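Reading a protein record of the kind used here takes only a little practice. Each token is a code from a learned vocabulary of local backbone shapes. With that in mind, consider the following protein and its fold in token form:
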Amino acid sequence: MASTSIGFIPGGTGNGLVKSLLDYAGEEYSIENAAFVCAKGRTMRMDLTEIEAEYETQKIYSFLATFWGVIADCDINSEVLRWMGSARFTVWGVYRVFCPINYLGSIIY
């Protein structure tokens, strides 16, 4: 089995994957610490999720979690509230409680 090493350095306001990896390495969350851990060459095994969407021609691979529905909605659609910082997720979640929408699809495990 082939293996590939990939280093992750956060580029946004929230990056759960880098936070999890830095916690595992015993480091605090920061761009500098992420770069330092990459430079040290510390590795760990990870599982990938493979997604086949009905209307996509290519498979999609995800490495931390795949969210669908309200959680994905809060993450993606709250971008209009980015100026609020991390509170935007809570505000958008409350908005979705009072203004719900249906998320259609199926999951096969």
